[in-house]
Amino acid sequence: MSSNDSKKRKAAFDKKCAANKKTAKRLRTRMDNKTKLAYFKECFGAKDFKECDRLLEGNQNRMIDYLSEAFISRVIETPDIDNWGWLFEHSIDANARFRAVNAKSWTMLMQAAEVGDLNLCELVLDNCPSTINERNHGNDKWTALMYAARGNHPELCKLLVEKGANIHIESTTDRTALDIARGNDAVDVVAYFESLHLSKKRRLIR
Predict the structure, then answer these.
(1) Is the pLDDT of residue 100 over 90?
(2) Cα dist from 179 to 104, 156, 205, whole Å
(3) Residue 42 has pLDDT above 50, yes or no
(4) Closest-CA residue to 52 (of 61, 123, 63)
(5) Which residues, in sequence order, are CB contacts of 11 under 8 Å at separation 6+?
(6) Residue 169 forms beta bridges with which residues?
(7) Angstrom distance (rounded) from CA 78 to CA 101
(8) pLDDT at site 54
(9) Mean pLDDT, all residues of the chain
(10) Average pLDDT in the 40-68 region?
(11) Average pLDDT over every residue of 115-139
(12) Cα separation of 181 and 148, whole Å?
């Protein structure tokens, strides 16, 4: 089913639902799983979370199907605190499910760090603290702190360090977050890292 087909179906469904709540309940019941999944994704994309809740009502097993790693990996591509917040709120096992990665092999925390969104990073860390030092699955093995350093996001780097990010971890090219910041002229992050006197307590972690 194409995206346009799903949108048309959702529009028609919403029109009928607005006219009669009993009709809405009956329509949801009659949808096959494939149609319901497509409709769920359209509702989620439109931030119609009330309708998402209705689709999942009384059936937590359906959540496992709907929030597949493939779906979550697509969500990661567009950091949005409303969408991510709803997913965390409804996840059966946040730490397990939100370790999913996007096409670049980045976790949700890495993506939030890359764009420099402090609120999104806090949201992820509150729900999935175990991902803070996780490396990407690509060739460079970067952590979220490294992405934040490259983007010159000093407040975000400070948050990550305070939450337990290891500043001594090295990428596969033997670079720490400080090295990456220096290589990308991220002067504010360099200043922050240097204030921690890293050279005095540096140890190699690969």
Answers:
(1) no
(2) 22, 17, 14
(3) yes
(4) 63
(5) none
(6) 205
(7) 13
(8) 80
(9) 78
(10) 75
(11) 87
(12) 9
Contact 106, 75 (CB under 8 A): no
Closest CA to 28 of 4, 57, 7, 49: 57
* Tally of CB atoms within 10 A around 164: 11
> Which tokens is 52 given?
């998402």
Q: In the 3-class helix/strand/coil scheme, how is the chain assigned residue by residue?
A: CCHHHHHHHHHHHHHHHHHCHHHHHHHHHHCCHHHHHHHHHHHHHCCCHHHHHHHHCCCHHHHHHHCCHHHHHHHHCCCCHHHHHHHHHHCCCHHHHCCCCCCCCCCHHHHHHHHCCHHHHHHHHHHCHHHCCCCCCCCCCCCHHHHHHHCCCHHHHHHHHHCCCCCCECCCCCCCHHHHHHHCCCHHHHHHHHHCCHHHCCCCEC
Q: Which residues pair with 205 in a beta bridge?
A: 169
* φ, ψ (nearest 5 deg) of residue 159: -60, -45
